[in-house]
Specification:
Length: 231
């Protein structure tokens, strides 16, 4: 029940809501935060202090290295202010941590809920954003994943973390269209369940919860597939 690092991209409830349980029930080595004040974070800081868990504010320019991985932090930074016409909620989304993690030749861009204002600020970083895998910003919402941002990241695989039949209508059909136009393979947690990506020969290997479920047998191929799941 040990978690070495917990990374909180921002403090909205759909990202931080389960963290209180994690802090209460797991041995957490360190918590990484974006350093932006938020009312929702007050109770979390009480628990972090209660359990004596070290925490770190990370920002653009930070690089954290270990034997098997490198973490580059691209966003946010002190001078960034989204000033979105959509209001404070969008501003807080665009304050999300954006990190590129590389390990064993596989690179993944984690970007929280950033919206177009943060993407515009990031694209000038160019090739430094290039990643094999992208965690699609803001659950595939319409105001994220601009064409310019996708063109710079050039992901082979996009993973959309999204609830089934959610009230926001995520992911938006225009967002899906942009990733498909870029030739990116798309995986969605509302359809595929949990997604596991590992380095492969030439390209990453992807397995999903859906892959591990027995399939209704319509012929001998389905029977063989189900038998292989038992091996």
């Amino acid at each position: 029940k040990r978690i070495d690092y917990v990374v909180l991209t921002h403090q909205h409830a759909d990202h931080a809501g389960g963290l209180k349980y994690i802090l209460d029930n797991f041995d957490v080595g360190e918590v990484w935060l974006n350093g932006r004040p938020a009312f929702e974070a007050e109770e979390l800081f009480v628990k972090i202090k209660k359990y004596g868990i070290p925490f770190r504010i990370i920002k653009r320019g930070d690089v954290l290295e270990a034997e098997k991985y490198t973490v580059q932090v691209f966003h946010p930074y002190n001078e960034f202010h989204a000033n979105s016409a959509r209001g404070n909620f969008s501003d807080e989304n665009s304050d999300s941590l954006v990190m590129r993690i590389e390990s064993n030749g596989l690179s993944v861009l984690f970007d929280g809920d950033i919206e177009e204002e943060a993407e515009w600020d990031l694209v000038h970083l160019g090739g430094r954003l290039r990643s094999d895998v992208i965690k699609v910003p803001h659950h595939g919402g319409r105001t994220s994943s601009s064409r310019d941002f996708i063109d710079v990241v050039k992901p082979d695989i996009a993973v959309i973390s999204v609830g089934r039949n959610n009230r926001f209508g995520h992911p938006h059909h225009e967002t899906l269209k942009r990733y498909k136009a870029a030739g990116t393979r798309i995986f969605r947690t509302d359809i595929d369940g949990a997604v596991t990506i590992t380095p492969g020969k030439g390209s990453p290997e992807v397995t999903t919860y859906k892959d591990s479920r027995f399939k209704k047998v319509a012929g001998w191929r389905d029977e063989i597939r189900n038998l292989r799941l038992l091996l």
